[in-house]
Amino acid sequence: MNPAYLDHYLIQRRETKKPGFVIVRAGTGEGARTLNHRFNRVTRYLKGFRKETSLIYARGEPVSGLGRVEFYLGGDLILVWLAKKGRVPCMDCCPGVN
Spelled out in words, what is the top-level CATH class assigned to the domain 2-12+20-83? Predict the structure, then answer.
């Protein structure tokens, strides 16, 4: 389902002409190395997902609980992918938390 949600997000961004933001956050007990790995994997995947995708990427402050990848349309949070400690969220096929 993640690719379907992402596709919907990217279509909305194009139709509304609002900027798209992707914020990658570390979860409880995760350090800079995990955050960097997650950030690099997510940005690489999203850049290959659609050639016309122009999103703004950022590393956010850590959160308590699971790591997160948050998608904003303008200033509105519209999609969140969760990731288990030290992992990257599944971006191809798996619903839920990986």
Answer: alpha beta
